[in-house]
Amino acid sequence: MKIGGSEIVVLEDSTALSRRAAEILVRCISETFSRKQQFSIALSGGSTPKALFSLLVEDGSFRNTIPWEKIHFFWGDERHVAPQDEQSNYRMANEIMLAKAHVRTENIHRMPTEQPDAGKVAQDYEQELLKFFQLTTNQLPVFDFNLLGLGPDGHTASLFPGTRAVCEKRRLVVANWVEKFQTHRLTMTAPLLNNADTIVFLVSGEKKAEVLQKVLEGGHQPDLLPAQLIRPTHGRLIWLVDRAAASRLSLSV
Ligand code: 6PG
Q: Domain spanning 8-242 has what CATH number?
């Protein structure tokens, strides 16, 4: 099913959602390696991707297919906590997937959130991106794959409604003050997130049904629904949603 330029795929449940996401990722990796020998992916945090990360290393049909040594892992957003903090998106992905797949340290590009100055974390991560992609300032990295989630308030990455990062058009990564959490969140900005070759949203559960319907079928109001900022500049956007999350879509199958 297509809405705008994006493709919406409705899966029976969260298990099917994770499996389809794994299949799409493996296919993207394979297609990418027909033209280059490196793959860059920006991971999302939160709880939804946990099942996907686990499947990628527990299911041999994925684990043994993925050339882990050629994959470079980044994060689309991160909490301003130490890497060993239980809130850390890096810690979650590392424990569930990266450590089990024995991914080399040089392939893991976490945000240096142990630094007390969140603005410096963002600046340092931008420099890491420019170095990895061999770019100069003002050039936008092109991620091969960008995994995103959807919060019940319409946020994605750490682009929260009414926050400054929603309007950022120049920077790659910013420290975004989130009033309701009374903390900074580190986040890639919409221009960078949109510049990926493949962008996949993973949305699961009844609790996301209302916001998903607003994001996909409601009026365009990205300041209130920042997930609506995600419009690929050149790549493809796939919404992978389960039936529970899709239950309020007028086009749900
Ligand atoms: C984070 C995420 C965030 C997440 C959504 C959905 O740091 O929390 O990157 O953007 O994707 O909040 O989270 P759930 O999957 O837990 O619902």
A: 3.40.50.1360
